[in-house]
Specification:
about 425 residues; mainly beta; eight-stranded parallel β-sheet; 38 strands
Length: about 425
């Protein structure tokens, strides 16, 4: 009997030991997930070198700066994010004949980059599932964000795609993806769904030469739901379309005529049954200013009287001049949230695109820094109630170094 008991105890101890080893292995696997930093002075100075060294569940954090490279992501469950947002972290294509980011792995997160300069795609998912692409500014590519080869169950949210041939492109049975909170503007085609179906597309902002093309069967709105939408309205439903010709006849800021919106037939099956209509004041307009005028740098605050979705700034020029804004920075609590830079006297030179498209919230102070060129119109007041809220001047320094506290830039934000 004693021998049997001893044998039983030995077996139990063996089982306990094996269990402890398994638990240690599992714990070690969890603990091994690491934060990997990329930037000057770091172990990894390129994003690609960090990706190559990474393991599943690692997070790659990219310091502020400009990176010129093409990044191939083949590691599952990997997060790649900028440290301080897309305005501060730019990735240019090293080889313009390749994608800037190419993802062939599942459960990958890419967030907070300005991605530009590819003759193919800024961000490319190839047979990649369950990825999240968020808060990126993707511009000056052929395809902004491109999902191909049955890239399914992905989420695209908070991205800005502009000045691409196609802003967002889903191809080859890329199904069951969710696209919400994105802005596609100044593209030849804003969103193109080719042989892809069962994708949910709502609460996005489309302002393009051609807003949409869709030859599949996709869902362009959710049910009318309380919540602040992308143009500052109080209901979620469909998307904002710059060329929607219908009306909101009952004041809920959702279109209820000329339905469904189908992008002049570009959406071949169905369409958006709850298109968003901008609130009465979906822009911030100081109106025109007066002489005297001179260029310089304006510092001040904007306090909106309603939620404002802002993607462009227009500067009122003095008659017969090329008065314009050279650059704009918008800050909230000393954090840069969006900016824009003038591209010279070409095309739509009097408007600057602000990236990313940003919501200025009702009653919440936003600080601006605007540098002007030539002879822009000036409002000679320290503070002014305008359409869409209040604007103040903290300090204006002209090109000759003189400073003033009552020179407000005459601008239109929308």
């Amino acid at each position: 009997m004693m021998k049997i008991y001893t044998k039983k105890v030995g077996i139990e101890l063996f089982i306990i030991a094996v269990g402890a080893i398994c638990a240690l292995v599992l714990a070690t696997g969890v603990v091994s997930a690491a934060d990997i930093f990329v930037g000057p002075g770091e172990t990894y100075t390129t994003i690609q070198s960090a990706v190559t060294a990474a393991n599943p569940f690692d997070t790659i954090i990219v310091r502020d700066g400009t990176y010129t490279e093409n990044v191939n992501v083949t590691v599952d469950n990997l997060t790649i994010q900028s440290e301080n947002g897309s305005a501060n972290c730019i990735v240019n294509a090293s080889d313009s004949d390749d994608h800037v980011f190419s993802v062939t792995a599942d459960w990958v997160n890419i967030s907070g980059f300005t991605v530009q300069g590819s003759a193919i795609a800024g961000i490319y998912l190839n047979a990649a599932d369950h990825c999240t692409i968020s808060e990126n500014t993707v511009s000056n590519n052929v395809f902004g964000i491109y999902l191909a080869s049955s890239s399914n169950n992905n989420t695209l949210t908070g991205n800005t795609a502009s000045y691409n041939t196609r802003g967002i492109y889903l191809y080859q049975s890329s199904n069951n993806n969710t696209l919400t909170g994105n802005t596609a503007s100044n593209n030849n085609i804003g969103i193109y769904l080719n042989s892809s179906s069962n994708n949910l597309i709502y609460n996005n902002y489309f302002d393009n030469t051609n807003n949409a093309h869709d030859n599949g069967n996709n869902i362009w709105n959710i049910s009318q739901t309380p919540g602040t939408n992308i143009v500052g309205g109080s209901w979620l439903g469909g998307n904002y379309w710059s060329d929607y010709t219908g009306e909101d006849t009952n004041g809920d800021e959702l279109g209820n005529t000329v339905l469904p919106y189908n992008s002049s037939g570009g959406i071949e099956n169905g369409g958006d049954w709850l298109p968003l209509v901008k609130p009465a004041y979906s822009f911030f307009d100081t109106g025109e200013g007066t002489y005297p005028s001179i260029s310089g740098t304006h510092n001040g605050t904007i306090t909106p009287s309603c939620n404002l979705n802002v993607s462009t700034v227009y500067t009122y020029p003095c008659a017969g001049t090329g008065g314009h804004t050279k650059s704009i920075d918008l800050y909230e609590n000393d954090t840069l949230i969006a900016n824009g830079t003038w591209n010279g006297y070409k095309g739509d030179w009097y408007n600057i695109t602000i990236t990313p498209s940003v919501t200025l919230w009702e009653g919440r102070e936003c600080r601006y820094v605007i540098t002007t060129g030539s002879y822009p119109q000036i409002i000679h007041e320290p503070s002014k109630e305008v359409t869409g809220g209040t604007i103040t001047c903290d300090e204006f320094t002209d090109v000759n170094g003189r400073t003033y506290t009552n020179w407000i830039p005459a601008i239109l934000l929308e």
